[in-house]
Every structure is written in C-alpha cells, then in structure tokens.
Amino acid sequence: MKRLLSAVAAGVLLLTASAATPDTTETDVISGTTAEAVFTAEDVQNLQDFLLTRPLETDLSGKPYDLNGDGVWDVFDLALMKREIPTQPEQAAHSDTIVVYFSRTNNTEKIANYLIDLTGADSYEIEAAVPYSDAD
Predict the structure, then answer these.
(1) Rounded CA separation 109/106 (Å)
(2) What count of other Cβ atoms lies within 10 Å of the Cβ of residue 33?
(3) How high is the pLDDT of residue 33?
(4) What pLDDT sits at residue 100?
(5) What is d(CA 68, CA 27) in angstroms, rounded to the nearest whole number?
(6) Helix axes of 41-51 and 75-84: crossing angle, nearest 10 degrees
(7) Taking burial as the number of CB atoms within 10 A of a residue's CB, which of 8, 48, 56, 116 is the most buried?
(8) Which residues of 104-125 are buried (b: 16+ CB within 10 A; e: fewer)?
C-alpha cells in the first residue's frame, strides 16, 4: 500500500512539473519576436507610459511591444525591452563628467588620473594660491 501511495505521489509530482514547464525558453521567445525590431529609449518611454496609463501622444497600435508572446503588454515586456536597447558608447555617457582634485603629495592625483581614464572625464587641478610647505 505504501509503495502504491508513493508511486501515485511521484506520478502527480512528475505531471505537475512537466505541466508547469513552458514549451519555449525565454531566449526563444525573445529572439523570435525581436529579431526584426530595434527598440529605442522612446519605445521604452511609450510602453512605460502605456503601463502607467498616462496620456500618450503617439499611436502605439502595431508596435511589437509584446516581447514575451503572451498577448499582453505588461511589465515583463518592459523589462525585456530595456534589456534589448543597445548600450550607449562609454565616452558619450561620460562627456559631461569632470574630475576636480587637489594633490600636494601626488597621491590624490594618481587616483584622479585613474578616474579620468576610467570615465573619459575632463580634469581640473586645484592649485593653492599660497603653496603648502612640508610643515603644513
């Protein structure tokens, strides 16, 4: 009796697990629906405004915003869309950055140069009006 009960329980668990597993993987759905679509920041903003029920100036009919193929535009589609947006070049993202530093012993200057190289930022060195001495 115990063997029969455990076999039935194992069969139910197996059927439940196989029924819960989707037929397609996430990458199949993404690559199948977005292969011809290229999304922009405006598309992300439009879908976000639609989901938040904000008034839209743009007609969204015919837009390929159903990225997971469930027939509904939802937050999952928004997350997938954000992942599909090409990343901006690093230099363009940091073009308005500046590293301002003061370095008497050159230790801070080394760190500032590291940050400048990392971000592509402009630099400005603060110079003391009256030079510091070793006693300071």
Answers:
(1) 5
(2) 17
(3) 45
(4) 92
(5) 9
(6) 170
(7) 116
(8) eeeeeeeebeeebeebebeeee
Contacting residues for 133 by C-beta, under 8 A, at least 6 apart = none
> Is 3's pLDDT higher than 80?
no
The secondary structure of residue 96, as a DSSP letter, is T
Q: Give mean pLDDT, residues 18-47.
A: 58
Task: Give CB contacts under 8 A, 24+ apart, made by 2-9.
Answer: none
Per residue in 99-112, pLDDT (tens digit) is: 999 988 888 899 99
Q: Cα–Cα distance between 68 and 80 in angstroms, integer?
A: 8
Write out the H or E segment, with its range, that includes residue 59.
none
Does position 55 have pLDDT exceeding 60, yes or no?
Answer: yes
pLDDT tens-digit series, residues 79-96: 888 887 765 454 444 457
Nearest Cα residue to 60 out of 69, 73, 71: 73
Sign for the CA dihedral angle at 116, 117, 121, 123 comes to: positive
Claim: this prediction has a pTM higher than 0.85: no
Q: In this structure, what DSSP letter does residue 48 have?
A: H
